[in-house]
Amino acid sequence: MPQALQQVNTPLIGVPGGRHLLDTPALLIDLPAMTRNIERMAAFARSRGVNLRPHVKTHKSVEIARRQVAAGAIGVSCVTLGEAEVMVQGGIPGVLITSPAVTPSKIARLIRLAQQARPGDVMVVVDNPQNLADLARAASELTHPLDVLVDYGAGYNRTGAATQAKVLELAALAAAEPRLRLRGLQAYAGNLQHIVAREERSAAAAGLRETVAGIVAAARRQGLNFDIVTGAGTGTHDLDSQENAFTELQAGSYVFMDAEYSRVLADGDQPSPFETSLFVQTAVVSTNAADWVTVDGGTKCFSTDSGVPLVAKGADAASRYAFFGDEHGKLMPPTGSQGSQAQRPALGSRVEFVTPHCDPTVNLHDAYHVVEGGTLVAIWPVDARGRR
Amino acid sequence: MPQALQQVNTPLIGVPGGRHLLDTPALLIDLPAMTRNIERMAAFARSRGVNLRPHVKTHKSVEIARRQVAAGAIGVSCVTLGEAEVMVQGGIPGVLITSPAVTPSKIARLIRLAQQARPGDVMVVVDNPQNLADLARAASELTHPLDVLVDYGAGYNRTGAATQAKVLELAALAAAEPRLRLRGLQAYAGNLQHIVAREERSAAAAGLRETVAGIVAAARRQGLNFDIVTGAGTGTHDLDSQENAFTELQAGSYVFMDAEYSRVLADGDQPSPFETSLFVQTAVVSTNAADWVTVDGGTKCFSTDSGVPLVAKGADAASRYAFFGDEHGKLMPPTGSQGSQAQRPALGSRVEFVTPHCDPTVNLHDAYHVVEGGTLVAIWPVDARGRR
């Protein structure tokens, strides 16, 4: 097979100025910024007395998961079984699968994975009595019980039981089933993460904390212990960690940040506590149009679900990007400056962008190009890219 | 490394009803429908006396390219050098790279590729005198001249020289350069492909044909022969093949079709001449919400640049899909039927969708699950996925 892009760029590792010689488009990590983000969130969780089990759907990388665990995370959260398989294979402990495993194929894979891992290192959420019975039947093949958390819809209702009564019913079923071990509760409110107005987000999160505390108290009265209460994303990590409603946070995007979350986490004059550490480097491949230059990153390089990439380096920061097909972007200098050649990046020059939404953008790339200043210091695979 | 999805599903090949047992989400090809599309476009091109060099950015598959060539295509078009590398490695002849190779890294890869392939089997477009000089310098390493086509912006101006004068200037430079061989002209009007109103699309395409014919005539008067005049997408294939303006078509999406192109190619009561042959199969993973069920395909499974997936099988066709995060979709029964349990797909059941936009959706998947009726007959890799 032809060389993958990471192999094309491997000879540039350690070469002075290698960042500016990359085969493009290339997904970049600013290593010092990412390291600060990892340390900041770990310190934040410690200061609040909650555990951190960061979501790897953002980065899908064993190397980054290792760094998160080394900084204090108790494990990782995964949305797909394929992500969990990659993490267990990579030696990452404490893997929580945050979406139900429902079809026979997925349940068979889950059981194989749970058997490979140490007891307790693979946990899965459940939101349906039929699914719970299917898991229990399959778990009879295991030499240890299967760890489950009951999933609560939390008003978002992507997955999860819809009411406290349904949560308690599932928890009682799990507790009564010897082939399962009830570990806790998941309450993830995806709909709150991206509310930009802090007061509105804060009020909604307070309501969720109250509901979750009520569910946990009711469970305790029935002798159902939710040792783990997990939830929270990057958008609500500071809210969900108040009042001991949650025992752990599953925020993920903080490691990279993106255009969207930077808006959400900025608080008045205070910028986000996390820095943008993820970028995409493109090259200018055509300069014939009067009002734009064309760069080699399009809909197969940047996710299209949340706005457009923002210029970080290599062009006037006020230039606007527009999608221009699978492999191209239109980069327009600021209005009023079209006549100025100084504003137009030259053919072959590099333009780096902040990603519009980090998770689905990462999923379009096979490798991270890890940089410190102008130096490429490593290339890491996006190990779980495309794993379902 | 953990098993990739194609390996998970490989044991299902040939198993009766295997289509309904797949690990999900799974990208599906309806093989008879795709085969008819390939044959129809080949027959259409023959009937118009034009060549067909279909664009592989749609499918990124050596197997599908082989079938297109077997049906009469003279080669394939590629937007990235990585796609071209995969096709040459797979033995596909007549590879045209439809975007300029500009950076030193890309030019070095192009030269290596041209040397590997038979003379004439790798061609690249050029839209800039500086890039032309760079290519000529690099081509001195080749044992044969490098084949180039001059790229004309065609009013779209993603890449391409902006005017007839600039096209002729580039053509003269290429013709005068012994290390290059001038092969023709590219005029791709991406902006015309998706105009739904047929009369408007037709008028715009007629204007382009006139311009292209004018450029070619002017070139001939200067002794510059454009043997190849390439352009056209699925949206304008029947227009661009009129009046001998183009010698070949580079349409790609016709092989699969999608929600968007089906709207464009329908002509009054006449449906599109091409059938939808690409689908994504999801499974229902949560059924607790009152107004929807949740399926396991989200923004990492369907492209988000052009509307939403449409139900093809497994649920009421009038159900609406909404994106629901990286790995999930919200599937809502038709308004007014929320109370009817019969309308709600059961937990674990399969729902298949027409993709909103085929090219970037394919790019999210590692493998095609090739089906005939209820049988999985093959699994093909998306060979060039992620190749830049």
Descriptive report:
Two copies of one chain form a homodimer. By secondary structure, chain A is α/β, with parallel strands linked by helices. Chain A contains eleven helices and 17 strands. In chain A, the strands form two sheets. In chain A, strands 1, 10, 11, 12, 13, 14, 15, 16 and 17 form a nine-stranded mixed beta sheet that branches. An eight-stranded parallel beta sheet of chain A has the order 2-9-8-7-6-5-4-3. In chain A, helix 4 runs parallel beside helix 5 (104-116) and helix 7 crosses helix 8 (198-221). The mean pLDDT of chain A is 94. At the A-B interface, helix 4, helix 5 and strand 10 of A face helix 4, helix 5 and strand 10 of B.
Can you lay out the helices and strands and say which pair or pack?
2 copies of one chain form a homodimer.
Chain A: H1 5-9, E1 26-30, H2 31-48, E2 51-52, H3 62-70, E3 76-78, H4 81-89, E4 95-97, H5 104-116, E5 122-126, H6 129-139, E6 146-152, H7 164-175, E7 180-187, H8 198-221, E8 228-231, H9 237-240, E9 248-249, H10 259-265, E10 278-286, E11 293-295, E12 310-313, E13 320-323, E14 329-332, E15 350-354, H11 358-362, E16 367-372, E17 375-381
Parallel strand pairs in A: 1-16, 2-9, 3-4, 4-5, 5-6, 6-7, 7-8, 8-9
Antiparallel strand pairs in A: 1-10, 10-11, 10-15, 11-14, 12-15, 13-14, 16-17
Helix pairs in contact in A: 4-5, 7-8
